[in-house]
Amino acid sequence: MKQKWWQEIVMYQIYPRSFQDSNGDGIGDIPGIISRLDYLQKLGIGGIWLSPVYQSPNDDNGYDISDYESIMTEFGTMADMERLISEADKRGIKIIMDLVVNHTSDEHPWFVEARQSKNSKTHDYYVWRDEPNDIESIFSGSAWQFDETAGQYYLHLFSKKQPDLNWENEKLRQAIYDMMNFWIGKGISGFRMDVIDLISKLPDQKILGNGPHLHDYLKEMNQATFGGKDLMTVGETWGATPEIAKQYSNPANNELSMVFQFEHIALDEVLGQTKWDLRDLNVPELKQVLTKWQTELGNEGWNSLFWNNHDLPRIVSRWGNDMTYRVESAKMFAILLHLMKGTPYIYQGEEIGMTNKPISDVSEIDDIESINIYNERLAQGYSKEEIIRSINAKGRDNARTPIQWSADDNAGFTSGRSWLSVNPNYKVINVEEALKDKNSIFYTYQKLIQLRKDNPLIIWGDYELLDTADNIFAYTRSYQGEKWLVVANFSEEENEFEGVFRELITHNYPDKPQKVLRPYEAFVAKMGDDENE
């Protein structure tokens, strides 16, 4: 596989509403992001995945777009966006835009016209039926909504304000490619593609993901937009297997650079149930899944590496210990992931160990998905306590509380009233404190990013899982005669690990590791020339 810049960098996801407010309206904005670029440069990241900043009525926090070529007024102007691209570039940081083309807002001019009549020129840009079937929306309830004016039902796999686009229409596809080229012309470095595996669907046969024309559309998109340019593309593909991921990301196929797969993320869900039906994480299962993705892509595809994003709870609260061992477990997750093969993604606040923010009542929820599941499960007879427990574990607001910059009011995020309340632990957990403490989680991330820049072994090395106790996750990376050992105690208990190494590279406790690993202890070390040394 020919070496690309996106294989060597670490990406950082910004959720603009919650990153930094510059004008006191309580909502993060683009000038706020610009004001924090020096911080991101200090961290060492090479690219920003920017969650949507397009014009939107905000039914689903910007993932319902009403104009792809305008900036949401709350976030700033197109001039601000152009300045962000330029200022990031000066610091060696590339901007990756979020591309949401499975659906639009019902306020997009295409849909406004489409619903006027069956003969309108954009009617066929969307998926209409005279009779609905029993497909359910991912946000609960029927995925079909009757439109009085059109006299038909339209498909919405998400909110009813997010009608699905009909990718079978060639004119629609061309309009999307024109929009992508508009942004490429602005100087962005690529796209993260929201639920891209849903764009080819056969709703009458209930085929919604990985439909028959998916790869045809991606090849066509590649040719019409980013193909032949030095850009990065990453697809959000919930249904991907390693074989499917190779189809997407093998350079010979001319589709995408890489995909996000979510197999590891579903391991604390009851099999065959929804994400709200919880079970404990089984560490051997996690080892097996992550190892499968490390080894089966081989050199035919490329991996993305992540624990967190805007849709997922904070990993330190989810699978770590966000109280007694918050610092140790946050560093353990960082070390375990960043030494793997693939492009790592840090979600804003992860680098300082931000935690989930539990709620006690539905009135505290902002997220449409959590509100819908609360009402649906209440009607099904679940107790309020049960539903709140699931939302506290898995709700998307956990990731969306504002970044904790300092111990000042509203954690330094805004001088006004924050759109979503700040986690009360901001006086202890914040960027200012992290930068002052040389042993903070921030500096662990900074070191891991630098290690990747300095060591081709991390990018290209072979991966091998070691046979250890259930709660020890240990693997080696080997490249051109050099071998590194990565060990993590994925547990609050002490665990023994027998291993000899030559030189310690990084470690999440202040003193050297011994034969008995402490809770959440993790380290990286160089092994001797003889692996049995």
In short:
Keywords: Glycosidase, Hydrolase. The chain is an alpha/beta fold.
Strand order of the largest sheet: 11-10-9-5-2-1-13-12
Number of helices: 16
Assign an overall shape. Answer: globular
Report how far apart the termini are: 33 Å
User: What's the level 1 CATH class of the largest domain?
Assistant: Alpha Beta
Q: Kindly state the number of beta strands.
A: 20
Mean pLDDT: 95
How would you characterize the largest beta sheet?
8 strands, parallel
**Which stretches are poorly predicted, pLDDT < 50 over at least 5 residues?**
none
Helix/strand-derived category reads: alpha/beta
> Per DSSP, what share of the residues sits in E-state strands of 2 or more residues?
15-25%
Question: What is the CATH architecture descriptor of the largest domain?
Answer: Alpha-Beta Barrel
Count structural domains: 3
Gyration radius, to the nearest Å?
Answer: 23 Å
Into which percent range does the helicity of residues fall? 25-40%
CATH homologous superfamily designation of the largest domain: Glycosidases
CATH fold title of the largest domain: TIM Barrel
What descriptive keywords fit this protein?
GH13_cat_dom, 533 residues, 16% strand, alpha/beta, single chain, Glyco_hydro_b, TIM Barrel, alpha-amylase activity, 5-stranded antiparallel sheet
